[in-house]
Write a structure and sequence with these properties.
The protein is an alpha/beta fold. The protein contains 7 helices and 19 strands.
Length: 321
């Protein structure tokens, strides 16, 4: 178990949404930045499945980037990698198999989850391979976008720990974690009423022994802050434009998360969920951090956290690469 003096630096990232290159960069961040703990916040799985449909001439047809594309047989692997790095799940199929999938939503959903779980298992194996000899522990939780099935997969890892809904000890520090979110327009798997969110948090943090050394690893950011600003959406999920011509930004975070931070005052809050709101703020003595996300471009955004010996943290250092 790590002691207090050994936790000199933490690397936190979140919302990689299935991006293979972002996950590999995350694993490399431990050694590259010289950190003692790696924490990967929620929304780790992807949102998109792309079929490569075999054609009579041996090339493939695939729909991505808003259009139909013909991919030459010698370019398939390279194109698949590009799409996997942007978070998509790819698979090769025949025209008849593709028609069957389109005609059967249940079969399509089953394949999507199979591809998702396969990639997650590959990631966990890679994490163990790269980190086991490093002495750097890794914590990974799901987010509101992630299906419940991932919890069992992560908890089957002999190295990576899923602290969802629990308070775990990291040396003299405590990590309280949840990937649930207040209701979003997409009604994701772990969207719940904000009041229910507050009850979950209150019940969980009863296990905390010292909030001076506690980290709230809550996927959803606190409400009415610079780290919970997102475009306002219409009923059809298209963005509302401001008079200036840009997106009209509104606060979409959790009031329960904010209330918990104000009440318990942990020394650090780690958040994500809102990709465009990279910033850090203070709520009382608590420093709340959202590193943002650009997973679709294969860019890993993160935050380096340096705890002070006498309490609190240094100003977070945002990373980009």
């Amino acid at each position: 178990m790590l002691g207090l003096t050994e936790i000199k630096k933490i690397f936190f990232s979140t919302d990689i949404h299935g991006s293979e290159v972002c996950f590999k960069k995350f694993l490399n961040a431990g050694k590259f930045y010289g950190v003692d703990v790696l924490i990967l916040g929620g929304d780790i799985t992807g949102k998109l499945m792309i079929a490569f449909i075999e054609q009579p001439d041996g090339n493939y047809k695939a729909f991505y980037l808003g259009s139909e594309n013909i991919v030459k047989r010698n370019e398939v692997e390279k194109t698949e990698k590009m799409l996997r790095d942007s978070g998509a799940y790819t698979f090769r199929t025949t025209p008849s198999e593709y028609e069957e999938l389109n005609a059967d939503p249940a079969k399509s959903e089953k394949l999507f989850k199979e591809l998702m779980i396969r990639r997650l298992r590959e990631w966990l194996a890679l994490a163990e391979e790269r980190l086991k000899g490093s002495g750097i522990p890794m914590y990974m939780t799901g987010g509101n976008d992630d299906p419940y099935e991932i919890e069992e997969i992560i908890r089957g890892s002999s190295y990576v720990r899923d602290p969802e809904g629990d308070v775990v000890t990291m040396g003299d520090y405590e990590l309280a974690s949840t990937g649930y979110s207040n209701i979003t327009p997409w009604h994701c798997p772990r969207d719940i009423a904000d009041g229910e969110m507050g009850k979950k948090i209150d019940q969980m943090v009863q296990k905390v022994s010292n909030f001076d050394k506690c980290i709230f690893n809550f996927h959803t950011p606190p409400y009415d802050t610079p780290i919970d600003l997102a475009p306002e959406l219409k009923e059809d999920l298209t963005p509302v434009l401001s008079r200036a011509g840009g997106f009209n930004m509104i606060h979409v975070g959790s009031k329960s998360v904010r209330a918990a931070i104000e009440k318990y005052q942990p020394f650090l809050g780690l958040h994500g969920h809102i990709h465009e709101s990279r910033a850090y703020i203070n709520i009382g003595r608590t420093v709340c951090v959202n590193p943002g996300s650009e997973y679709g471009e294969g860019v890993l955004r993160g935050a380096l956290i340096t705890p002070k010996k006498k309490g609190g943290i240094e100003n977070p250092e945002f990373t980009y690469g």
